[in-house]
Automatic annotation (TrEMBL):
Gene3D superfamilies documented for this protein: 2.60.40.790, Tetratricopeptide repeat domain
One Gene Ontology term of the molecular function aspect: nuclear estrogen receptor binding
Lineage: Eukaryota, Metazoa, Chordata, Craniata, Vertebrata
Any one GO CC term of the record: cytosol
Superkingdom classification of source: Eukaryota
Keyword flag Cell inner membrane: no
Name of the protein described by the UniProt record: Dynein axonemal assembly factor 4
Keywords linked to the UniProt accession: Cell projection, Cytoplasm, Neurogenesis, Nucleus, Repeat, TPR repeat
PANTHER family in UniProt: DYNEIN ASSEMBLY FACTOR 4, AXONEMAL, DYNEIN AXONEMAL ASSEMBLY FACTOR 4
Keyword Transport part of the UniProt annotation: no
């Protein structure tokens, strides 16, 4: 028996509907999404989500993005109007079954038309390729017939190629005297080239000998003898290693560390602090003042020490997340916001403001990492806590526009 998903959320404009369906462990390869102009279904065993839409949509241009245990749908309306609800009201089982069957038949018809269009386009491409090949073959046959027509009886095709490729006015030597003169000129050129090559080789040899003499003259003399001072790190125990008992020494050091940890003296930052400075609340107020003066690094150090003294105060993590967001430490912002949300339990009216700030800061960090779907989920969670917050509403609308591709990333 599939589990029906009912805790979805949706928002709309006059032209589009934004639907967010939470599914634990959902991924793109296992989720089965089926959508027509009046019906939407998501099958991800053991979860099932289906909705009979209030008005027709353009299923061809609608989009779905899967990630972070959520599917976000962007459904574009065929007619610009505000819907009274997401699904039809007063739909009985027979009408549901009829809509399902009509949607399946519509999807099959659409798939059949797409396959026929693809096959027709393939046939046109094959017909065009065949016509081009026929034209190429006809052109080759015409060239071969022209070639054979111009050839004289007993003349080879190479002679014809020579006649075609030899430029006008150029003739080969025909007499023996011309051939002999060409041979003499060739031998003279070879002799002249060999002589110039020998001169160049002698010049290079002389240059090599001269450079080698310069290298021998520039060799530095051997360095003089000197001494190097070496200082060794002193051991904890002054006894020599061959006379000491390493196991007993390690045990003693371990006991000393345990004793310092028991009296809470293993925090170096506490050694030089006054008694009032060891109070986490005092450190929190100090961090808030440093944050107000935009000294974010010092504020982070104050919150770090307060958390080491008491790691159960959620406002310390929330304030440190704000500092990390200013310093562009986005992953640390996400960690601190998540830790603050874990400590802000149970969700009551007294901690509503802190929970909203944690969602907004984590959502802002996700958006700066270009994880807009995860950021939108945190902004929607913040709007559930405070629906009248105009700033959060505007930021959420901008994130939706970025996901749809209608607004540039900033």
């Amino acid at each position: 028996m599939p589990l029906q998903v009912s805790d979805y959320s949706w928002q709309q404009t006059e032209t589009a509907v934004f639907l967010s369906v939470p599914l634990r462990g959902v991924c793109g390869r296992d989720a089965d999404v089926f959508c027509t102009d009046s019906y939407l279904k998501v099958n991800f065993p053991p979860f099932l989500f289906e909705v009979f839409l209030y008005a027709p949509i353009d299923d061809g241009s609608s989009k779905a993005k899967i990630g972070n245990d959520t599917i976000v749908f962007t459904l574009y309306k065929k007619e610009a109007a505000m819907w009274e609800s997401l699904s039809l009201s007063g739909v009985d089982k027979e009408m549901m079954q009829r809509i399902r069957e009509e949607s399946i038949l519509q999807a099959q018809e659409t798939a059949k038309e797409a396959a026929e269009a693809k096959a027709a386009a393939k046939r046109e491409d094959q017909k065009y390729a065949l016509s081009v090949m026929m034209k190429i073959r006809e052109s080759d046959a015409q060239n071969r017939s022209d070639w054979d027509h111009n050839r004289r009886p007993g003349q080879s095709r190479r002679k014809i190629a020579d006649n075609y490729t030899r430029p006008k006015g150029q003739q080969l030597p025909k007499s023996k005297d011309e051939k002999a003169g060409r041979g003499r000129k060739t031998r003279q050129n070879l002799t002249r080239n060999l002589a110039s090559r020998n001169l160049a080789t002698k010049g290079r040899n002389s240059e090599n000998i001269f450079s080698e003499k310069l290298k021998e003259a520039s060799v530095p003399p051997p360095r003089s003898v000197g001494t190097v001072q070496i200082s060794f790190t002193p051991r904890v125990f002054p006894t020599a290693l061959r006379e000491s008992q390493v196991a007993e020494e390690e045990e003693w050091l371990h006991k000393q560390a345990e004793a310092r940890r028991a009296v809470n003296t293993d925090i170096p930052e506490l050694c030089d602090l006054k008694e009032e400075e060891k109070n986490p609340e005092w450190l929190k107020d100090k961090g808030n003042k440093l944050f107000a003066t935009e000294n974010y690094l010092a504020a982070v150090n104050a919150y770090n020490l307060a958390i080491r003294l008491n790691n159960k105060i959620p406002l310390l993590y929330l304030n440190r997340a704000a500092c990390h967001l200013k310093l562009k430490n986005l992953h640390k912002t996400i960690e601190d916001s998540s830790k603050a949300l874990d400590l802000l339990t149970p969700p009551v009216a007294d901690n509503a403001n802190a929970r909203m700030k944690a969602h907004v800061r984590r959502g802002a960090a996700f958006c700066q990492l270009e994880l807009y779907v995860e950021g939108l989920l945190d902004y929607e969670a913040a709007l559930k806590i405070d629906p009248s917050n105009k700033t959060v509403q505007n930021d959420a609308e901008k994130i939706r526009n970025i996901i749809q591709g209608t607004e540039l990333k900033s």
